[in-house]
Design brief:
Layout: H1 27-45, E1 50-51, E2 54-55, E3 57-60, E4 65-68, E5 71-73, H2 79-99, H3 102-106, H4 109-125, H5 128-136, H6 141-166, H7 172-180, H8 186-206, H9 208-214, H10 217-220, E6 231-234, H11 236-239, H12 264-267, H13 288-300, E7 307-310, H14 312-315, H15 325-346, E8 351-357, E9 364-365, E10 370-381, E11 387-394, E12 400-402, E13 408-410, E14 415-425, E15 432-441, E16 448-456
Antiparallel strand pairs: 1-2, 3-4, 4-5, 6-7, 8-10, 9-10, 10-14, 11-13, 11-15, 12-14, 15-16
Helix pairs in contact: 1-4, 2-15, 4-6, 4-8, 6-8
């Protein structure tokens, strides 16, 4: 049941048969289980963690604030997200060149959520053989009850997943109250159902089809592989010719390799491939086949490693190289980007300023002989404490700044718009010139930011 049925003559596509991965234990599967618990535990728990009286991780889109524990980011800090995406892409290249599709096998959301849906399916319907038997059986009360129980668990878990996703954008306690009282807004309802539905269909029904046909990574991974990339592979020189034999029988005496053709490596594969046919793009490097084969090797008394992590050079008896140009370049770039990211985010300016000209008039000629330009100065306080700011202007001699008060107080995380009049004596400037408007804190903490503007004056 792990093979895809070949297309009949005259048909373009093969009919898909459901894959029932066999449950297996081993060191790699324990690592995968740990990854599932760690990643999903982080995903489901984080929205409920509080920090200084607020949700620790909250992307408050209406307020344009992104809280991540003690740090608050603003739309002006959006380049940090771009920076992280570049680092994530480079990390994918690095780990793929180093050890193949580790991300797919252990950390990909599709893999992680599919594993949880498989656990629920096994808990309700039983082992692989029991699931296959139930699928072939006619509809009875017991079959209907098991299928309904499985769907109930899947749908409940999927909706919880969608609820948690929205909880990163709407305070989760507030969202929970809305759900209980059935008063969620249209967008909150849409995203809970959309994200929950995507989880339900991708992890419950599509499963390996996402990895095989929808994921672009499977298609271009070969461009990042070389003969020193660590991959899951079958040692055909040791295993072939394969064939059944009794325990204790010397395979060489029967002209056989170490592979007993038990097909357990195929039965445990979540994408239904036969690793003995060589590296295939459908392989997600989950290492289930390694654990299955090692278990069989232990039972028959053969050494482990018939299926193992190895490189193409290693299979051919050549030296293995971890350090090579591409891995060194990737590692160096990642280190530099990570160091730069940490330095930039820890030394970023906590105040910002935006200077906009008044559109109603280019300039004003005052009766006292001064030329006046009016600006709207927006002060952004990204700090966790309130500050009082003074506003100054430079770039032209004799500039006078008037904003009505000695200082401007801006609360933590607030944006304050201040109308500012900047004047200079008539005749000192003809036409226009660039000036710099600076905001500076008037308290113990020295913070400042500068914005550019254009000062206009008569041409004669």
């Amino acid at each position: 049941m792990n093979d895809v049925q070949a297309p009949a003559e005259g048909e373009l596509y093969a009919a898909r048969q459901k894959i029932y991965p066999r449950e297996i234990e081993g060191r790699f599967q324990r690592l995968r289980v740990f990854a599932v618990w760690a990643l999903l535990g982080l995903y489901y728990v984080l929205p409920w963690v509080t920090w200084n009286g607020r949700q620790a991780v909250l992307f408050d889109l209406p307020a344009r604030k992104f809280h991540i524990f003690a740090m608050t980011l603003w739309p002006q800090d959006f380049y940090f997200l771009t920076w992280l995406l570049v680092m994530a892409a480079l990390s994918l290249f690095f780990f793929t060149a180093l050890a193949g599709r580790l991300f797919c096998g252990y950390a990909c959301p599709q893999t992680v959520w599919t594993e949880v849906f498989l656990w629920m399916e096994r808990w309700v319907e039983g082992s692989r053989s029991q699931q296959m038997k139930l699928a072939r059986a006619p509809w009875t009360g017991e079959k209907l009850a098991r299928k309904a129980a499985k769907q109930f668990l899947w749908i409940t878990f999927a909706l919880w997943t969608g609820f948690t996703f929205v909880g990163y954008f709407t305070p989760v306690t507030e969202l929970a109250g809305k759900v209980v009282s059935l008063s969620t807004g249209p967008w909150e309802t849409f995203w809970v159902l959309f994200y929950g539905g995507a989880t339900y269909f991708n992890a419950g029904f599509m499963r390996e089809q996402v990895c095989k046909y929808m994921c672009p990574y499977a298609r271009f991974q070969s461009a990042m592989f070389d003969k020193d990339t660590l991959i899951i592979t079958y040692d055909d020189r040791r295993g072939e010719p394969r064939g059944a034999r009794r325990k204790g029988v010397d395979p060489k005496a029967k002209g056989l390799g170490d592979c007993g053709d038990c097909t357990l490596c195929v039965q445990v594969c979540p994408t239904g491939i036969d690793i003995r046919k060589g590296l295939q793009y459908e392989c997600i490097a989950c290492a289930a086949c390694i654990d299955a084969c090692d278990e069989v090797m232990d039972k028959v008394g053969y050494p482990r490693g018939l299926i193992r992590y190895d490189t193409q050079n290693g299979l051919e008896g050549k030296p293995k190289r971890v350090l090579r140009p591409r891995t060194v370049v990737y590692a160096t770039l990642l280190t530099l980007l990570a160091a730069g990211f940490v330095y930039t985010i820890t030394h970023r300016n906590f105040v910002g300023v935006d200077v906009l000209r008044d559109r109603n008039a280019l300039f004003r000629e005052r009766s006292d002989g001064l030329i006046e330009n009016v600006y709207n100065v927006k002060i952004l306080n990204k700090d966790a404490a309130a500050h009082e700011f003074v506003i100054t202007a430079t770039g032209i001699d004799g500039l006078q700044v008037d904003y009505g008060t000695p200082t401007v107080k801006v609360g933590p995380g607030e944006v304050q718009s201040v109308p500012v009049k900047i004047r200079m004596p008539r005749g000192e400037l003809h036409g226009g010139a660039d000036i710099q408007v600076t905001i500076r804190t008037n308290d113990a903490r020295a913070l400042e930011a500068t914005g550019k503007a254009r000062f206009l004056a008569p041409t004669n």
